[in-house]
Each structure stands twice: as C-alpha cells, then as structure tokens.
Amino acid sequence: MRRPWAGPRLDDDQQAVLDLVDDLAADRLARVGDDRPDDVDAARRTLAEQGLWTLGVAEPDGGGGAAAPTMLVALARLAGTWPALAWASVQAHAAAPVLAAVGRMPALLDGLHDGAPVAVAAVDPGSVTLTGGRLTGVLDRIDPAGREPRLVVLLDAGTAVLVPPEGVSFGPPVARTGFDGALTVGVRLDAAVPGDSVLRGPQAGRARALLDAGAAAVAAGIAEAAAAVALEYSAGRVQFGAPLTDLPTVRASLSAQAAAARALLVGAVTADLDRPDALAAALLPACDAALDVAAAAVQSHGGYGYMTEYPVEGLLRDAVSLRAASGAVEAARSAARTLVGAGG
Asked: What is the pTM of this model?
C-alpha cells in the first residue's frame, strides 16, 4: 500500500514524481548496505534512467528541468525509502551547477546525469585550503553512495573547486550510525588545481544552497517515513483487546510525530533557494526535528523499535548520520557568523 503524502498539497507534476518514486521503491530500489556496492551502483543508474537523479538540474545543462519544489518532493520521498541514496542525489544536484560553469569537461556533466557518483563537501574553515593553486587538507567523511567519486569542495559561500582525481586519496571505509549504502570514506587532498577548475561567484553559492535545501528535504523524508511506520505499527498492535491507538497517550505521541513531520515537509518543499543564509540556518533544526520524530517513532514500537526487523530503528540511525554528513552544525555556525557580520 502506498504511503500517504503528509506534506503540502501537490500539483500534477509533483504528484507524478511522487508516484514514480513510490513505484521504484516498490519494485526496483531494494535498500542495501556497503557490502553490496554493485547494487548501490545499479540503484543510482535506475534513478538516472528514470530522470530522477538530476531531476532539478536545468534542461540546458542536461537535467530534468523540474522546479525546485518538485525536486525537493522527490528527494524527500526517496529519503523515506533509502536516505543515503537521496543524499547522494542531493550531492549530484549540488555538483551540477559547478560542472556546468567550469565547462572544461562536458563528459563529466553527462556522466553525472547518467548516475556517476559524485561527492560535494562543504568544508569547515581551515580544514581545506587553496593556496597558490594547490588544494590541501583532509575530509573526515564523504557519503557518495558510490566508489571513488568525483569530488567538489565548497570552500566558502562563494568558492567551489572541482578536484582533479589524481589529487584525491581515498581512505578506508568510515564507520557510521546509519546511511546504509553510503560507502562513506575519508579523503586526503593534495591537488594542483587548474584555474578553470575553481568557480567563484553565484554558481558556487547555488551549489551550497542546493546542498542545504536538499539535506533539509532528506530530513523531512526521514521524519515522514518514521511517523508513518509508527502509526501503522500502533494501529495494528493489539494490547488488552484493543489497538495501541486507542490509548490517549499513544494517540498524542503519534499526532505530535505527524505534525512535526508535516511541518518539516512544508518547510523543505517551500524552501527559497535564493536565500542561502536562511537555508543554512534552517538545516540544523530540521535535522534535530527529524531525530526527535524518529526517536519518538522508535518509542511507539516499544522494545520492538530497537530490532532491525522493523524499519524505524534504521530511520533513527539515518537521522543521526544525516546530521553529521550534511554538516548541519557547521551550517548553523556559518549562518550565525553571517548574521553577526550583517548586524555589525
């Protein structure tokens, strides 16, 4: 049975995209872990073949040309099925304006639309530096849902670097809480970067805005799925001759979960990509709210919520991983620095 959409009213295009994601989730997207990288590759290609992988990228740049709300609906819905794959699609959307603007290697952009893995990392100040044409530093983690991805580094709000592959050293797999299939690794950078691989200006800022807006959509999708499975479980679980939903405390918790998930979806789908500071400021609260909803959904299952046979425990782990992978804490700090600077 299809999961109802808990967010704002959808137009025809958005409903069609939602239905497509649901159909793929039912038939062709079986969530797997890092031990099956070939299946993760196949899932990326499936999304690319269906036009979802870069749905929101402009048509002149080879993407689907969907409006931002439609793209964010797709990302949120995919996150309810396979959050790591949704986060990887977010990164593909964020990489596209950089690859299009750099323009040195059109085959890279074509490969992106075909589902080639890419990682986009917004770095902490000082962790990666570009000096004299050389990029150096360490990334604790990237989560590309693919092996040896091309890497785009967002040095600040207005600077993006397409890193030459010969300057990237991938480390061993990084342990994490959730995000099955993310193929998380650490990265060491020591790259001579040609001048035309450095992008400065609005397109670099657009990449960061897409990253933050997409992460909030993934958080909303995790919350929606967690609230839905909590309701389904509680409605079907009978205690003392009646379903759990007959208990006032259970109903109150489920109602709060549903309300929080809807608020996240409304905020995610209506996000304004032309307000990057607002997007950065909203990301950490969105991730924290998704954590709260997922944790409450686990509690709604009682002891069963901690068993891997039930999807809710995985959604809670995914919410934890998203908060780390998206750089939500640093995004909040960056937004605060901007606010203080504007006020001064």
From this structure: 0.94
